Amino acid sequence: MQNKITLNAFLIKRYLRFDKNQPFISITAILAFLGVGVGVMVLIVAMAIMNGMTKEFEKKLFVMNYPLTLFATTSKGISQSVLESLENRFPELSFSPYLRMQSVARANGVMSAGIVFGVDAKREAKINEIFAKALKNSNISDFYQDEFSVIVGEGLRDLLMLENDSKISLFFTKLQPTGLTFSPTMKRFDVKGFFDSGLKAYDTSYIYTNLTALAAIKNIGTGIYDGIHIFSPKPQEDIHAIKQALLEIPNAGVGIEGWWQQNGNFFSAMALEKRALFIVLMLIILMASLNIISSLLMVIMNRRKEIALLLSLGATATEIKKTFFWLGNCIGMGGILLGVVLSMGVLYVLSTFPIISLPADVYGITKLPIDLSLIDFFSTIIGAMVIVCIASYYPAKKASQIDALSVLRNE
Fold it and tell me: Which pTM value belongs to this model?
């Protein structure tokens, strides 16, 4: 056994040396080594960037869409009793009831359509960090005390040229009689703060005001809501428990959905793009592994006489196969190790230095997000190892099938 290991190690070390008589063979092996390394590096870096972008978009959408949302399935809305029942049943969760109306905002001669949310500021701040930050940067006491005050997005602020304590007119879809016609309900609000979600679609269309203000405009009593936002650290598990609790409340008239259901198509497209990118970049490693095959076949053709002598001196076909199989693996696995080292260096540079800057108005961030998951990392390594092993097997098998007698006779 020791002799077999020594023979294989001796031959692998011998064949890995640079061949001055046949430099093209060694150059092909070096190209295979570098090709696999570059392929692994590109794949790991691409997966880290793709995963980082997905996490960044998920974070932004998660903040503005909330983990779980209750919505009314009847015109009666969601009653205060339903809210209190759920709060007693799930004390570990945070609930924020809201009212919602479509509106058109007007200020300084400019108009923009949007959605007005009536919220309990204290409850909303607990589950919405964007809103909480806006409250912190604004005059909180004024927002609490002034019933008809609003917090708008920075996109809407720039569009309507607003400032703190500016007046903004909101025209609601609710109609009220004026003489012989019906006109939209209009109310002037005081702007008390601004929020920045990082997504222009939200910053230009979302407006927050007090629950009592929107209840007065909708002409409904207190304790009736259009929906309830819920913060949960485990929304995909809690959604089933809440559904069961709602079934136990008579005539609740409430439905529930998670943030992943609201944006399912978007994240499905991101996942599909990530898988497609993984497959395409894995082809780089596959192409590099072809150099391993060509390099080993050239070594075998150049060493036919030597292989034949080994077989005639007692070496078995299995030993020859193992020798060239592990020779190919040494080239390929070395390339994989090089790729891992290079990728770690590239990821460190990208995450530390502002080499690639992103436009903040498009992505909401200026730094390239990097997030390498263990699943992506080990999938890359395992996939590359499988390709290298397959590429090494065929030349090794051909080497073990050499007819020693025929080769020695011709030589």
Answer: 0.67
